[in-house]
Amino acid sequence: MYVRVVLVGIEGSVNLGFIARTCVNFGVDELYLVKPAADLEEALRYAAKASDYLKKAIIVDDLVDAIKDVDLVVATTAKGYSVGDVVRQAVPLRDFVEMVKGRVNRLAILFGRESTGLTRKELRYADVLVTIPANPEYPVLNLSQAVAVFLWEIWNIRGVRAENIPPSAGRDEIEFILKLIHDISKKVLVKDEKVSRIMEIWKKIIYRSRISKYEARLLTYWLRKVLGKLE
């Protein structure tokens, strides 16, 4: 999925810098700024390693120019529902993500001003209105936080593997660990019935823990040492 973030009238330089970083964090392909009020030079100070990305942001005067050549336009709002208001009938973010998964090639996500959000006229440019469910007593998120939450959800359906997550142990590795535990249990427990019950517990624990390959390797090493001591 090709993702474009569109910031309409963004006012805060700090927010703009943070949003640029977030766009890089989650692989956003394009950043459009519609009549930005923020100081772009100041925003670069908060963009950190996303400063080059922010410099490439496309600045336009009309929202129409920012939503060309996409398959779907989604607008975000904290006020997602109002009785009798045909414009403000939003869907929760999670529902939206499931809706577009595998069905949309090019997506534009609209975010409004920190002070007033998107106008009703701007909301009408969207095909779908989405809201992030939050505390009903104060559901309004900071703009940069809303962008981060939204982009993280989109990231999860784009099929990009994060390199800061260790590779999980495979089934063969886990089954070998369970075999070692079984062999140890046979040596320390007298009754086969108890071995069987213990193995049921160990199987659930090991699979539920979703250990990494590195953890599996260390655990296998330790279990082999224990088994060796018992023989």
Automatic annotation (TrEMBL):
Family annotation (Pfam families): SpoU_methylase
Keywords tagged on the record: Methyltransferase, S-adenosyl-L-methionine, Transferase
GO biological process entries: tRNA nucleoside ribose methylation
Gene Ontology cellular-component terms listed: cytosol
Domain tRNA/rRNA methyltransferase SpoU type: 3-152
Keyword field contains Cytoplasm: no
Entries under InterPro entries matching the protein: Alpha/beta_knot_MTases (IPR029028), RNA_MeTrfase_TrmJ/LasT (IPR004384), SpoU_MeTrfase (IPR001537), tRNA_m1G_MTases_N (IPR029026)
Top-level taxonomic group: Archaea
Keyword tRNA-binding: no
Any one GO molecular function term: RNA binding
Family membership noted in the UniProt record: Belongs to the class IV-like SAM-binding methyltransferase superfamily. RNA methyltransferase TrmH family.
Protein name, UniProt field: RNA methyltransferase, TrmH family, group 1
Organism name: Staphylothermus marinus (strain ATCC 43588 / DSM 3639 / JCM 9404 / F1)
